Amino acid sequence: MKKIYLSICRVLAAIGFLHMSAFGFSEGVDYITLETPIANMNKTLIKVFSYTCSTCYEDDKAEKTDIIKEIESIVEIKPFHVKTQGIYAKEASEIFAVLLIKDRDNGITSIFDKNSQFKKAKMAYYNAYHEKRSKWKIGGESFIRTGLNASGLSMDEFKTLKNDPRVKELLDMWDNNIAEVQNVPVYVVNGKYLINSKKINLTNDLAEIIKELADK
Predict the structure, then answer these.
(1) What are the DSSP calls for 70-95, one per residue?
(2) Sites in the chain below the pLDDT cut of 50
(3) What is the mean pLDDT of the chain?
(4) How far apart are CA 140 and CA 85, in angstroms?
(5) Which of 208, 182, 190, 205 is nearest to 45 (CA)?
(6) Distance of CA 64 to CAs 69, 97, 128, Å?
(7) How confident is the model at residue 22, as a pLDDT?
(8) Taking the model in full, what pTM does it have?
(9) Where are the chain's structural domains?
(10) Computed from CA positions of residues 117, 120, 122, 128, in that sequence, does the dihedral angle turn out positive or negative?
(11) Which CATH superfamily is domain 26-214 in?
(12) Backbone region of residue 41 per phi and psi (left: phi > 0; alpha: psi in -120 to 50; beta: other values)
């Protein structure tokens, strides 16, 4: 009987393996479907982040080039910044939105491009907050200048671009779709499939689950 039991266990384990191989990741376990999808996000990966998030910082600092290239061949990566985390989160969102539009105008399509002004500012804030433990002066101008100096954007240009309708549209999109987000990073494929980062190995499995969900 013991031998039969062990044989059954092996068969069941094999069936489970084949099920996973054939059908991939499971809804409700590896990802959930949002009740209210984000419109016009087909073939995209939304990454919700905060400059105060240590996991976000470590992930971006590592910049696993092979994985990034694989993901960018499947979807367009769209960063959404949370303006409710950190004393200057609102200012950070404005700067990031301005620089994403500025990058677009400069023909830079990847947020990982070495010439991306968005990337330069983001890494400057990460470094200042997590490595230098910067507190910045009350009022926010010194915080703003940290990102502007790193990106090469002047204060006057920032103030002008901040009123660009495209910047306001981007900020409204972030506010309307991630207002309730408490823990970051958050990954959403096609604006509707939220990846369970507690179940998914973000180093080994991220590209595979994105590939599967992008085709749903």
Answers:
(1) HHHTTSEEEEEE-TTSSTTHHHHHHH
(2) 1-23
(3) 86
(4) 15
(5) 190
(6) 9, 24, 22
(7) 38
(8) 0.85
(9) 26-214
(10) negative
(11) Glutaredoxin (3.40.30.10)
(12) alpha
